[in-house]
Design a protein that fits this description.
two-stranded antiparallel ribbon, five-stranded antiparallel sheet, elongated
């Protein structure tokens, strides 16, 4: 039924709904992030007790600027089991939290269910607490997506709202743990694509949700920056060659990382071999921690803080190279796919190179972080804003220079396999397609009925319906299955496909939503704007329409 309100009024109402939902989502994510931090703060000492080693942390997340203990050989033997558990809990499809977010968005808003999300959250929390190469941010990113699914169970969300709010929820969780809500919102809108493109339609909901979530999170733990960075100045012109050297060195390391990560065949990272390889990765981490340096344990943000403060000097490059090697080995298995592992690896490499070239170590570390993140995630603007949020506005020129150069030189590769090359290649922006239905089905423009009218065969003349279109007198009787298309009956709105009561001989073969046809998954919830495509014999479909005309049906 056509609304009597003008289109401009409807647009404002729809926009206002998204704004309200974004704010509510931010409140929900902020509260959940407080609970998640309390859980991680309780798990982290248990992991340190098990391995005998506690890496340094960041001031913003309550960490200490020093490491405690020595890696115990018998305690480190738990890492293979934790690695296998993580690889089992986080399968190749859909992948790590950030990969899930990107893949699901380009699949038209098709994300794993709540159970799969909780499973991924548990896996990331356990692996991070044990000291494997899993970023603390991964758990918060997953929590934001779970919050959107919880919100969807309370209020009905259409397809566009679900896509928008899922990104906004991820931005809210990421903004809380990064202590940089605006940078997180831009990064989420940018990380969807390999080229320099943005999902501008979702940027403002991401900003609203991230700001509100960080406001709630800050009430519990304060609003201190994630890193404690001394006052930095824009490098002098004489230091420009050293700055360029740091950027080029980090970009080369990132480019080599992307090539090395492809050495493991993709088919090995799935199926029964995945937990085995996860255990092997945990064993390699334990071997490096015992025979090399225990600094490889954790996501590395604490060591980045020490390098920014000038405590590591040239040794930062060695720590960065160890992390580079583990990141290259574990990328196919969803290890190191978040924000913090790339930030720490690039920052340590940048700090080591900056010390050798005579550049201010804080500037070199943060510039290295921006350049490396731009290479691995193809998000130069988000990486630059992160560095500015942590180190101050004086770093904006060099951060933009470093991230832009890195993105220009590194090409379109990245650690997120689900990234689309451009908006034109994304399914969200693709033209309507009916590939999910048989090739004989032709597209019929959407008809908005004034009432709950019965379905219409695809080959029926305009204005005809299955109930009112009479067959020609000389037409032979036929009971072959035909395709019918009708609006969702009022009694079916909000129901899941698996709950539909259909007579024998009638099946739902497609659901028209947002201009495209979707497969009728059992858990898909119908909305008033959907249209159903049935494959049914004429007599069976007539029986269905008769049931729908009954009072209360």
């Amino acid at each position: 039924m056509r609304s009597p309100l003008p289109r401009a009024v409807l647009t404002r109402l729809e926009t206002g709904r998204v704004v309200v939902l974004s704010v509510l989502l931010g409140l929900l994510v902020g509260g959940l992030c407080i609970l998640l931090r309390l859980v991680l703060d309780a798990l982290h000492p248990l992991g340190a007790m098990l391995t005998g080693y506690s890496p340094p942390g960041t001031p913003g997340e309550g960490g200490l600027l020093m490491a405690f203990g020595d890696a115990l050989p018998w305690g480190l033997l738990c890492l293979p089991f934790v690695g296998a558990l993580y690889a089992w809990l986080v399968p190749a499809e859909p992948g790590a939290p950030l990969t899930q977010l990107v893949r699901g968005y380009h699949a038209g808003g098709t994300w794993p269910g709540l159970r799969a999300g909780l499973r991924t959250l548990v896996g990331t929390a356990v692996a991070y607490s044990a000291g494997l190469l899993v970023g603390r941010d991964s758990a918060f990113t997953m929590l934001g997506q779970i919050a959107t699914r919880l919100l969807g169970r309370v209020t009905r969300l259409d397809a566009v709202e679900t896509r928008t709010l899922t990104l906004a929820g991820a931005a809210a969780g990421l903004g809380a743990v990064l202590h940089a809500p605006l940078a997180a919102a831009v990064l989420i809108a940018e990380v969807l694509y390999r080229r320099f493109e943005f999902e501008v339609e979702v940027l403002m909901p991401c900003v609203l949700a991230a700001v509100v979530a960080y406001a709630v999170y800050g009430l519990g733990f304060g609003f201190a920056p994630l890193f404690s960075v001394p006052d930095v100045q824009v490098p002098a012109l004489a230091q420009l060659p050293a700055l360029i050297g740091v950027v080029l060195g980090v970009v080369l390391a990132g480019w080599l990382l992307l090539r090395a990560a492809r050495l493991l065949p993709a088919q090995w990272s799935d199926g029964w071999a995945r937990p085995v390889l996860g255990g092997v990765f945990g064993l390699l981490t334990a071997a490096v921690a015992f025979l090399g340096t225990p600094a490889v344990l954790g996501d590395g943000t604490g060591w980045l803080q020490l390098s920014v403060s000038g405590f590591l000097g040239p040794d930062a490059a060695g720590a960065g190279l160890w992390r580079w090697a583990l990141l290259a080995l574990g990328a196919r298995l969803a290890f190191g796919g978040g924000i913090f592992p790339s930030v720490a690896t690039g920052g340590l490499l940048g700090a080591g190179l900056g010390t050798l070239l005579g550049l201010d170590v804080a500037v070199a570390a943060l510039v290295g972080s921006a350049a490396f993140l731009a290479v691995t995630l193809n998000a130069p603007v988000g990486a630059s804003l992160l560095v500015v949020a942590w180190g101050g506005e004086a770093l904006l020129p060099v951060a933009l220079l470093a991230a832009g150069t890195a993105h220009l030189l590194s090409g379109e590769s990245g650690l997120l396999p689900g990234q689309a090359i451009s908006r034109a290649r994304s399914r969200v922006h693709a033209a309507p397609t009916f590939a999910a239905l048989p090739g004989t089905v032709r597209y019929v423009a959407r008809r908005t009925p004034d009432t709950d009218t019965p379905g219409t065969p695809y080959d029926a003349p305009p204005g005809a319906s299955s109930a009112g279109a009479a067959a020609p007198a000389d037409a032979p009787a036929s009971n072959e299955p035909e395709l019918y298309r009708r609006a969702v009956p009022a009694s079916w709105r909000g129901a899941r496909v698996r709950l539909l009561a259909l007579p024998p001989g009638v099946e739902v073969v497609g659901i028209v939503r947002d201009g495209s046809v979707r497969l009728p998954h059992a858990e898909l919830r119908l909305t008033p704007e959907d249209e159903l495509v049935f494959l049914a014999r004429p007599d069976a479909y007539a029986a269905l329409e008769g049931v729908l005309r009954l009072p209360g049906a």
